[in-house]
What we know:
Layout: H1 21-47, H2 59-66, H3 68-101, H4 107-116, H5 122-133, H6 139-148, H7 162-170, H8 174-187, H9 190-198, H10 203-232, H11 235-244, H12 249-255, H13 263-289, H14 312-338, H15 355-363, H16 366-397, H17 404-412, H18 419-430, H19 441-465, H20 470-477, H21 482-493, H22 495-510, H23 516-519, H24 527-537, H25 540-563
Helix pairs in contact: 1-13, 1-17, 1-18, 2-13, 3-4, 3-7, 3-8, 3-10, 3-12, 5-11, 5-14, 5-25, 7-11, 8-10, 9-10, 10-13, 12-13, 13-18, 14-25, 15-25, 16-17, 16-19, 16-22, 18-19, 19-22, 20-21, 22-25, 24-25
Amino acid sequence: xxxxTAQGAPSSDRRKxxxxxxxxxxxxxxxxxxxxxxPLFWLAFYSFRNDRGGGFTLNNYASxxxxxxxxxxYGLAIGMALSVGVLSCLVATPLAWLVARTDLPGRRLIRxxxxxSFVTPPFLGAIAYEILAAPNSGLINILYRKLFRxxxxxxxxNIYTFTGLIFAIACFTFPYVFTLVANALDRVPSDxxxxxxILGGKTMTTLRKVTIPMVLPAMLAGTLIxxxxxxxxxxxxxxxxxxxxxxxxTTKIWxxxxxxxxxxxxxxxxxxxxxxxxxLLRSQKMILGRRGYTVLGGxxxxxxxxxxxxxxxxxxxxxxSVLSLTIFLPYFAIVKTAFTQTVGDALTWxxxxxxxxxxxxxxxxxxxxxLRNTFLLGVLTATIVTAIALIVSYLVxxxxxxxxxxxxxLATAPIAIxxxxxxxxxxxxxxxxxxxxxxxxWILLIAFMTIELPAGYQQMSSAFSGVHPELEEAGRILGASxxxxxxxxxxxxxxxxxxxxxxxxxxxxxxxxSATILLTTANTKLVSVIIYDLNESGDLGAICVLGIVxxxxxxxxxxxxxxxxxxxxxxxxxxx
Length: 576
């Protein structure tokens, strides 16, 4: 019989094992510090640097107070973000209640459609509304003039306004509020609502005094996320605000890199945006951390379903209106423009053409390079980030090493860095004689890894919380190292979550624009940047073809993550 050691391993296998946990920990600490801390350091450094002759100066920060264009850009950005947050909450909250707590027909389909709208890049949604609501060429205004026989100067709606910008952004940020509120409503105990009814409370009274107070933290948290998304967004304001003749702070920062460039002023202008983002994220975390109720005494009953009765058709009209404005009309505009010669052409068999598709794939020289760069970076970013997130989340959640929590802080920190701010920091860090990475795919890979790391880490951390560490402990007892245990035991149990995280990061990468716009050159163009460039030249047909390619790739990845049997039917919500 083979003798066993006190640890349970065969004595014949007793040999000195090399545990790579500490070297891997050190390597990850250095890598994450370079990804996160280095761009922030150079951002702060250049914010005190004179753009003209170098040297230390406070003039860049003084300009934040004295330059009326910067003050106006910040004021408009804050006003826009607050308006988007309020509008998103006003639309998403009743829709979430209808889907989660009433007998509204097609509730599951509606929830799926709203969740799927996360896949739509906001800048592509803004272009869709250019097609629909531009004052001269918008489909809505063309139809309006034809119906009422008005002259060419007349229009019903104009998307190139401050109000139009708020509306267009809210159409693609309200799902953040919807998701949080709907999930909160799913968890509200029906016992309290039943008690309210027993005590004579009518449906609206119960809703006002019981249900809404319980989901209020989720409403406020979702609203803060919508505000944050709007405040840090570049694509939609660049597409809609610049033609309207005004800047928000993200487009103003971008403009400071145009000739003559002012990197020091751009860095200083980015610092307050970073501070505001951190404050909003901390507020959101505090709100979600203070749930308004705690369920005691075991599992509560199923969610209480309210019968709409005669209000059902009004609820259906509201739901269809929301879905039309956020999904059906924008998608129709994109598909229709991709298959007709001009925006104003009616969609008939005679007007259908493949000329835009032929131009994009066979005549436009930048397409092949942009597609190759986009999907190459998408695959590399998703693979590297998922691997890093897997190891970091293992070390953090299992408390494997002293100081492992530091890795978790670094992996989460980029969520507080707006894309345009990160783009400025990376440009200042790597577009210098020391690194000379500007104009290469490496700087884009670094940017995407930094931006998507929090998403991958949060996905994997949630997955680890559902796996009991006993099997890992058994592997350790039998002599396996921590990384060997992770590779042979834990990772196979988490393959569904690993693939879902990979898909999540891939979709986020191929639609990124805010940081990318500052870091690409003619040789490193991506599809998102090509779309933005084509919008400036007014080639909407080619834009819609490329937009359909992006959407098709994103939906295909989401479908694979949810449906393929090999993945175990994982559930993934694609982001915006």
